Inverse folding.
């Protein structure tokens, strides 16, 4: 099923080269894929996965293993960001 994966800041390095300019890639995932499973499939280091939004809704870490994706979802992920 089709979804859009968006990775921001240095996490965009995990995207295919042609998708890095837009920070987004359209992908197909199996039915019932969870947010946590997708993060693992893309080999995103857990300590770098900080803010996770599914269609603009924050998904806290404990809920990521239970939250299944559906066709058309947009999953956006940001690393921890420091600054001031």
């Amino acid at each position: 099923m089709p979804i859009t994966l968006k990775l921001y800041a240095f996490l965009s390095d995990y995207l295919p080269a042609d998708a890095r300019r837009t920070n987004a890639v359209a992908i197909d995932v199996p039915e019932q894929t969870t947010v946590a499973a997708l993060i693992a499939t893309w080999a995103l280091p857990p300590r770098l996965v900080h803010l996770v939004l599914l269609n603009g809704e924050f998904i806290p870490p404990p809920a990521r293993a239970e939250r299944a994706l559906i066709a058309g979802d947009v999953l956006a992920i940001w690393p921890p960001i420091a600054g001031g």
User: Anything to note?
Assistant: The first strand starts at residue 2 and ends at 7. The chain has a mean pLDDT of 95. The helical segments are 35-41.
